[in-house]
Amino acid sequence: MRKIKDIGEFGLIEEFAELFPVTGDIKSGIGDDCAVIHRGDKWYLLTTDALIEDVHFDLHYSKPFLLGYKSLAVSLSDIAAMAGKPVAAVVSLGVPSNIELDFVLDFAKGLRRCSKKYHCPIVGGDTVRSPSRIFVNVTVLGESDQEPILRSGAIPGDLVAVAGTIGESMAGSILLLSKSINGKMVISDRAYKEKIVVSHLQPEPLLAEAVALHQALRINSMIDISDGLSSELNHIAKKSKVKIVIEENRIPISKPLREFCREWDQRPVELALAGGEDYALLFTFPKVYQSNISLCKFKAPITIVGEVRSGRGVCIKTKDGIKPLPAASSFTHF
Fold this sequence. Notes:
CATH topology of the largest domain: Phosphoribosyl-aminoimidazole Synthetase, Chain A, domain 2
CATH superfamily of the largest domain: PurM-like C-terminal domain
Oligomer: single chain
CATH architecture of the largest domain: Alpha-Beta Complex
Number of strands: 15
Largest sheet: 7 strands, mixed
Shape: globular
């Protein structure tokens, strides 16, 4: 008899997608960043994310305020991946009955901070007792005035680009795990360390940036980078039935990530490809709009990393030639 570990997380998602095909007003269902529902002249987006203690976060360094902030931010990133705008969110929280009230209230204050910053009101949810570990589930409703961007729209000839930085969150996780001693952080004052730790603990969804990018570049496909660049490239290639070729020397590596890797003997490209939890955006767009990148004036850098071709799969061009780039992630659920 098959076990979940035999097919993995994405194999399980494919099994569910076969059981629950899209029908009627549902234009996209299981297997994309959001479900897409078309009613009248509106497109509605629906997404949900769960965070489980000791799976997604460690209370030695994930303080309640930042945990609340991140819990909403990661779901908002799914809305960004379709160039949508958030409408509202509901939150379910499971905690042990002996947890301190201040912990829960600080968690709620973190939620509120993210909610206000990105104009996504918290309108309800559920609170339950958990036998031992904390769990959080956030569901966000979004909307769009135009057809949302899916993973399946990449076209041969498109350019492949990244908005934001990648690899920093994984570096921050490594640093936090190695520096957590008896629940107290002992991180030195090196400037790069603060940057990568914040990248991991307090990600910022690129909501406004996604809308601006779509307006300027007429994006054909997009996904947020939650499981590492190589994994997300393979998702787009598979859904779009195309081949994607990227160049290793074009992968955006930030100065803080380079400094971390020099000190910690890590390869920055490997962290970028397989790290995850960056919540940057990976997208493809027609080459004819490349000059419009200059119109996108925001903090997140935009980097062209490759192109879409006819064929199947993902390849990476290195100094040693072109080789296949399978989906790789530092974390898998099963």
